[in-house]
Amino acid sequence: MPQVSVKGKLIEHAESVFRRQGFNGASVQDITGAAGVPKGSFYNHFKSKQELAAEIVRRYSGGTDLTMLEVSDGRPALERLRAHFAHQAARTRATGVEFGCLLVTMASETPTAGDEVGSAVTESFTGWIDVLAAVIEEGREAGEITAQEPARDLAAFLVDAFEGGALRGKATKDSDASMRSLDLALRVLTG
Predict the structure, then answer these.
(1) How far apart, in whole angstroms, are the C-alpha atoms of residue 89 and residue 145?
(2) How far apart are CA 132 and CA 126, in angstroms?
(3) Radius of gyration of the chain from Cα atoms?
(4) Mean pLDDT in the chain?
(5) 67 in Cβ contact with 50 (< 8 Å)
(6) Nearest C-alpha neighbor of 128 from the set 57, 64, 83
(7) What's the chain look like in SS3?
(8) Would the pTM of this model clear 0.85, i.e. be above it?
(9) What is the pLDDT of residue 188?
(10) What is the DSSP string of 3-50?
(11) Tens digits of per-residue pLDDT, 160-181?
């Protein structure tokens, strides 16, 4: 079995530390302790906690499964959108609904986490919204989605409803809050 590098260990454990403690609550010592590496080794691989956090956000977003949004399976757009968000909800449940979605955790701290983290969060949301907007347009072309608002606004609304529900679920330990909010938002697309 190949040995994991110190940088790999830091990246592997930082997501959990940031998810559980937030950006501001997590220290370099917390991250290196979770990774089981000396604190001094952190700065051999990252110039700052912000640089690591931005990489973690990009990695988290890059790990988002978008396959259920593809039109190739023949399912209607609304069904594909719901399946995508259900997968996202399951991803959050798997890591602990009480800790919420990493993207929301980091987004809530961007004013104090710095520009590098803020940019990574913004890029993540923008990319997600772009993909969802394309599916909404496909649904419009098929006559399935009738809402007249711009597709990007509708896509952002779906993300806001889902992530807002996830944030409430984090506070109340309600693992279904995000999907209930999402289902209400999906109804807006058809009426």
Answers:
(1) 23
(2) 10
(3) 18
(4) 91
(5) no
(6) 64
(7) CCCCCHHHHHHHHHHHHHHHHHHHHCCHHHHHHHHCCCHHHHHHHCCCHHHHHHHHHHHHHHCCCCHHHCHHHCCCHHHHHHHHHHHHHHHHHHHCHHHCCHHHHHHCCHHHHCHHHHHHHHHHHHHHHHHHHHHHHHHHHCCCCCCCCCHHHHHHHHHHHHHHHHHHHHHHCCCCHHHHHHHHHHHHHHC
(8) yes
(9) 93
(10) PPPHHHHHHHHHHHHHHHHHHHH--HHHHHHHHTS-GGGHHHH-S-HH
(11) 999 999 888 888 888 899 999 9
pLDDT in tens, 55-108: 999 999 998 989 889 877 789 999 999 999 999 999 888 877 677 788 888 998
Tokens 């330990």 found at = 173
Task: Identify the residue whose tokens are 């772009």.
Answer: 130
Instruction: Identify the three-state secondary structure at position 74.
Output: coil
Token readout for 15 is 């997501």
Please report the domains of the chain, with CATH numbers, ordered by start residue: 6-50 (1.10.10.60), 59-190 (1.10.357.10)
34 vs 27: CA distance, rounded Å: 11
Name residue 70's amino acid: E
